[in-house]
Amino acid sequence: MSQRKRTEPWIKKWLLRGIFSILGGWGAGIVLFSFLPVPFSAVMAERQLGAWLRGDFGYVAHSDWMAMDDIAPWMPLAVIAAEDQKFPSHWGFDVQAILSVLDRDGGRIRGASTLSQQTAKNMFLWDGRSWLRKGLEAGLTVGIETVWTKRRILTVYLNVAEFGEGVFGVEEASRRYFHKSASRLTPSEAALLAAVLPNPIRFRANAPSAYVRQRQQWILRQMRQLGGTDFLRQHNLL
Question: What is the pLDDT of residues 20-32, one digit of tens each?
Fold first, then answer.
């Protein structure tokens, strides 16, 4: 028997073990983080490792966990208004938005991600765009939508979302940019934080461009049109 034939079963065996270990880890994470605070996310780990590999040992990917009851209601309302207004009613995917993006961009992978999809990606996957990552993201989104409540998805999202370089989670962002706890955020401040979410490295809450200011005002209008915090109460998100 050739060396190649002897090693192929061993490689397949360990490859399958690796795949099942990853899947098992994701499954355990979905169950555990349905009630436990999240200490860090995959994107946080990716950013931290990237900084160390660049020799930037001063970079710290930091987040302070906050329960939904300790976050000003304007913040969850702002991210829903900005990112996913169908969040309370969909099952993880905005099919209409996905079809619209694919039709407009010729099948390229961009945009149309719901808060559930963004949470799945931030928690368990790497940054970037590829069909592989989007496929894994879809499976993980189904998992968290099945196990977690909408309120839990929103809570985790607000605690792991990136708001700037090394700034993860709404509590860290609020203290860094407004020098106060997320429990005291105003509607305008919440809208400003939500305005930088599409690209928190390019867009800065502490030095907002004219575009970010325009987006902030649009988000404030959307928050009012949704019905303010009554929208959150109506859908059991507070």
Answer: 677 788 888 999 9
d(CA 164, CA 188) in angstroms, rounded, equals 18
The CATH architecture to which 39-234 belongs is Orthogonal Bundle (1.10)
Render the burial of 82-112: b for 16+ CB within 10 Å, e for the rest.
bbbeebbebebbbeebeeebeeeeeeeeeeb
Is pLDDT at 2 greater than 80 in this prediction?
Answer: no
- What is the pLDDT at residue 111? 53
What does pTM read for this prediction?
0.88
Residue ranges per structural domain of the chain: 1-32, 39-234
Using alpha carbons, list the distances in angstroms from residue 42 to 21, 36, 38, 183.
16, 16, 11, 26
